[in-house]
Every structure is written in structure tokens, then in C-alpha cells.
Amino acid sequence: MEFSKKKIVRLSLNLTLLGALFPCVLFSADLRQRNGNVIVSRTTDLTQSSNKTDVINIKNPNQNGVSHNQFDEFSVQDGVIFNNSLKDGNSQIGGWVGKNPNLKQNANTIINEISSKQASNINGAVEVFGKSANLIFTNENGFSVNGAAFLNTKGVTLSTGKFNGDFTEVTSNGRVAIGEKG
């Protein structure tokens, strides 16, 4: 297959124009996998800290201090930061992190609802940056945990239930497996 120089230039210009007109398409592809982590969300912003650790800018909490975040997939290999901060600062695992632009107040509890068709792997550090908060993870297909560390948290819950507002629906499809590294 042979391409003329004119066709290559035209294709390059079209791709450049496409990227300029639809940057969200190019940006969303970047959220698929970085740093060994797989974090896919339609409702939560994903950025990086100064040392390239993934940072999740959680949603603003409700009047009870609960931030409800939804993920299509969620697996951690090399560490992730939940940004619960109203000001810039240094995190324990990520270095400098900017304040969370979504927050008007800090969350007391951060719910992470995962709708993946497979278990989530948590094999690295998970940090709450800013005010300490409870972390709740739900994935009806379960969790595999090996080498996890939870930093600046009041408590951590891994649930194989579906979150419907009050955790009344429990499933037996998933399980929480803890590996030898914890």
C-alpha cells in the first residue's frame, strides 16, 4: 500500500483538527490505564500529582458529608490519592497535589461504587489527601487485595454488595480475597 505525501499531509491535518474539536475523546482515552492503575469513571476527575501518582478529585459531599463516586473499573497497582482537600499541599505518596476544584466542603465518608464485571485489585497504597475520611468501596464482583496500604483514613470498608443508598442489597457473587502481602 503506497501513500502519497499529499494524502499523509491531509490525514495529519484531519487528525489535528479532530483533536482540536474533540479533545475529550483524546483525554478520556488517557484515563483507561496509567501507572499500572485501571481507573475508569464518567463522573469523577482524574489527574496526577507532582510525582505522577494518580489523583482522584472526589465529588463534593452531600449535607451529611458523604461523597459518592462511581467507577466503571477500579484497580490500583502503583498507588492512588483520593483528593479531599480544600487547599494545595504535599501528600504522603504523591508529593505536591493541588486542591480539589470539586469541593465546597471536605467529605467525612468517600463512597466508591464500582460497576466492573470483574473483581477490583487493590495492590498498592490508597491515600486520602486532606481531611481524613472513611473509605467505602463496593464492587459486587469482589476484591483482590495484596500489598495494599490505606493512609489518612478513619476506616476502610470493602463490600461485595451493590450500593443503593443504604447498602440493603448484598450479593454472593463476589468475595474479598486478601493475599499474603495484605
Automatic annotation (TrEMBL):
One family name in Pfam for this protein: TPS
Lineage start: Bacteria, Pseudomonadati, Campylobacterota, Epsilonproteobacteria, Campylobacterales
Name recorded for this polypeptide: Filamentous hemagglutinin
NCBIfam families given in the database record: adhes_NPXG (TIGR01901)
Residues making up the signal peptide according to the UniProt record: none
SUPFAM superfamilies the UniProt entry points to: Pectin lyase-like
Location of the Filamentous haemagglutinin FhaB/tRNA nuclease CdiA-like TPS domain: 50-168
InterPro entries: FhaB/CdiA-like_TPS, Pectin_lyas_fold, Pectin_lyase_fold/virulence
